[in-house]
Design a protein that fits this description.
single chain; 731 residues; alpha/beta; GIY-YIG endonuclease; Rossmann fold; 6 domains; 19 helices; 33 strands
């Protein structure tokens, strides 16, 4: 069925099409004569034996010829801000491009249905009349508190006076207190139009470039590219300030929750107020408040994770995607989409500018800049006279660590010198836990996850083994589960916990801290750790990739990377690009203030092009070589990919379904289909997995080909089929 606006049916009744937040088509409903509904309104409608809340959709007057007698009535229109036409178009576009049902995308924009119901006002009490004839000590305390004339809730007034709620009730009945209604939530403060810090000449030139795009009041995409520590945030804050002065709303997307806390501090220092925050860890009350505030236009600036892209902005006028190269902007579960790319689409539909900020832009973005589709402004130097860190390689074949250790003598010496100077160091290893593998020294048995094709990671500090794919946990056994020998289990390879153990033994006086997704739970924990590092309460920070981005620690002068080659394993399409981005970012944490910094990268592959580029600082030749290699291989950004992932608890059914899809696969010039093959992660959460991959030319409508493919294959039964356009992960 096709969506349509309110219209007259064949027999003359009014009807609408309602899209529900479910993987279903939109349905026709009849509008009662006493109900006024418009496109974009939220309505309650019957679906089977239940009632659901959906949105009145509007994509034209192409209604199917459905008899009025078959239609069911709209139950009610909700008192909620409607979904505007641009947002409905955006939801349709995301669904079409990513081969998802519009209702599944709509669900992401209606994450909390309770936000659709206007919150009830708060009943409060204040001094309203003379004291009662019978004035007990408890009543006197209440009146003393209320003497300031402020209105308080029953609970707050009772708590302040140290009395029970019955005392408040008695004073109301006596006329001494009057009731008033207060707004359910405090108003969102507006960013203040205050001047920001003095910008350097390069920053001013870059900011003027962004302001010029904003003044054009039309769609444009601008890459803000600057080296680490160049002050990109302050530059795009100028564009945020201009949008706020014009009365428009602004969305800033960040890739990690851990980045939110320091970013919020910088925003508040610049604008005098905190912005609204949107991410998965929000409390339900805060989620409802922000959603309605955005829809009503009360919230002017939102900073959030990728899901913030689907908030119902009343007047969105600018989007900033910070760290645009980050792969965490790609959602792998449910509706697969890339938030950076979809943000560009939302800006295009809304006809306003978008800024992509990065020190190490993605090859897709660089390709678009070179093709003239995006504009670029650059910041080639660090702000305030700081210099980029010196980056050097430690050849682990020539300078290996002692047996049982993971830090080379050279890195150990650098760490000793740094601590002796009263400066801070950061050690980076992109492996959580203590060790990635535990095996039996007697029989060679490896401790695996029972639900996934992965090893269990030892977290020794928590005395557990854990799977990082499904979350399975168990205690470390005393005996081998295979041969029953005791005290033969060995930890193989380093994780950050094992690194911390080594550093603590070598430098017992040093104050250490771990920063990983296991140890930092949510923005508040991240904020505390970052503050401790900023004020110098930590000497050595050891962490995974969340330490690599956006942090500014004035006395951090040494970065050591353990196993710099880790990201190059596995033959991933973007392996070299991602390794360069990650190591550039983490190295860039050093020397960001007045003290020079350096980074030592431990590697067994010093001849790799990515290592040469990092040491030399010659980025363009590396980018040119990567793009040339992609073009020669016929891979993005010079081609298009779509992945089909078949999964299910029954391996035979998964194989049969994957083979059926392969037989129906399209054939022809410019179209390649590979697979099915068992996925590198053959089983996740107890589900067997096989993959197929389609490649087409850059200008081919790959979505249409996949839809035709699925139509030829027919229904896939007994398994799940996930579609991923422009896949980033091939596991």
């Amino acid at each position: 069925m096709h969506a349509m606006s309110t219209s007259a049916g064949k027999a003359g009744c009014r009807r609408v099409r309602v899209q529900l937040p479910l993987p279903l088509d939109a349905y026709d409903y009849r509008v009662p004569d006493d109900l006024d509904v418009q496109a974009g309104d939220f309505v309650r409608v019957p679906l089977g034996p239940r009632e659901r809340v959906g949105v009145v959709w509007d994509t034209g007057d192409d209604a199917e010829d459905v008899d009025d007698a078959r239609l069911r009535d709209v139950v009610e229109r909700l008192d909620a801000p409607p979904f505007g036409a641009p947002l409905r178009r955006f939801i349709e576009w995301v669904a079409h491009y990513n081969l998802a049902a519009p209702g599944s995308v709509l669900r992401m924009a209606m994450r909390d249905p309770t936000a659709l119901v206007p919150p009830a006002p708060i009943t409060a009490f204040r001094l309203g009349g003379p004291a009662p004839d019978r004035l007990t000590p408890a009543r006197r305390r209440v009146l003393d508190v209320a003497a300031d004339g402020l209105a308080r809730s029953r609970a707050d007034l009772a708590a302040a006076a140290g009395v029970g709620s019955g005392v408040i009730k008695g004073l109301v009945e006596a006329g001494s207190l009057e009731t008033v209604e207060l707004p359910p939530w405090p108003a969102f403060p507006r960013p203040l139009a205050i001047d920001g810090p003095a910008l350097s000449a390069a920053q001013r030139q870059a900011a003027d470039g962004l302001l010029a795009r904003l003044s054009e009041a039309r769609f444009s995409t601008t890459l803000l590219q600057g080296v680490t520590g160049s002050g990109k945030t302050e530059v795009y804050f100028e564009a945020v300030a201009a949008a706020c002065k014009a009365g428009q709303q602004v969305l800033v997307l960040l890739p990690e929750i851990a980045l939110t806390a320091p970013w919020l501090d910088r925003f508040e220092a610049r604008f005098g107020v905190a912005p609204a925050v949107w991410h998965s860890d929000l409390r339900p009350k805060d989620r409802r408040r922000v959603w309605r505030g955005v829809a009503l236009g009360d919230v002017q600036v939102v900073v959030g994770a990728r899901s913030a892209l689907f908030l119902p902005f009343a007047d969105l006028g600018l989007i900033v995607v910070d760290e645009e190269h980050e792969s965490s902007f790609k959602q792998e579960d449910g509706v697969c989409y890339h938030a950076r790319d979809m943000a560009i689409v939302r800006a295009s539909i809304g006809n306003f500018p978008i800024v992509l900020a990065s020190a190490t832009p993605s090859l897709e973005t660089i390709s678009n800049v070179r093709a003239g589709r995006y504009q670029r402004v650059t910041l080639p130097e660090r702000h305030g006279g700081a210099r980029l860190p010196d980056i050097a390689l430690v050849n682990m074949r020539h300078d290996p660590p002692p047996r049982g250790c993971w830090l080379s003598p050279r890195l150990n010496m650098a760490l000793s010198d740094t601590l002796a100077c009263g400066e801070q160091a950061m050690l980076f290893l992109n492996r959580r836990g203590y060790a990635p593998l535990t095996l039996c020294g007697a029989c060679g048995f490896r401790l695996n996850c029972p639900n996934c094709s992965t090893w269990l990671v030892e977290h020794r500090f928590q005395n557990r083994l854990q799977c990082h794919h499904c979350g399975y946990q168990t205690r470390r056994p005393k005996a081998c589960p295979e041969c029953d020998e005791e005290d033969v289990l060995k930890a193989c390879g380093p994780g950050v916990e094992r690194l911390a153990e080594e550093v603590a033994e070598a430098f017992p006086e040093a104050r250490l801290a771990l920063m990983t997704s296991d140890t930092v739970r949510g923005p508040e924990a991240a904020s505390r750790l970052i503050q401790a590092m900023t004020v110098g309460d930590i000497d050595v920070l050891i962490g995974t990739q969340i330490v690599a981005k956006g942090h500014h620690f004035p006395t951090l002068t040494l970065v050591g990377v353990v196993d710099a080659d880790l990201g190059l394993a596995g033959g991933d399409l973007r392996a070299a690009e991602r390794t360069f981005q990650l190591l550039s970012q983490v190295s860039g944490r050093a020397g960001r203030a007045d003290r020079p910094g350096r980074a030592l990268l431990q590697t067994y592959r010093p001849g790799e092009a990515v290592m040469t580029a990092l040491v030399s600082g010659q980025v363009e030749p590396f980018v040119d070589a990567e793009l040339a290699e992609r073009q020669a291989a016929g891979m993005p950004p010079f081609a298009r990919l779509a992945a089909l992932i078949v999964s299910g608890p029954d391996a035979a059914k998964v194989t049969a379904a994957a083979n059926g899809l392969a037989r129906a696969a399209p054939r022809g010039p410019g179209v390649d289909v590979w697979g099915p093959v068992v996925a590198p992660l053959a089983m996740v959460r107890g589900r067997h997995r096989q993959r197929l991959l389609m490649r087409t030319g850059k200008d081919t409508n790959i979505q249409r080909l996949v839809r035709q493919w699925l139509a030829r294959a027919g229904p896939v039964k007994g398994v799940d089929l996930r579609l991923d356009v422009d896949p980033y992960s091939f596991l």
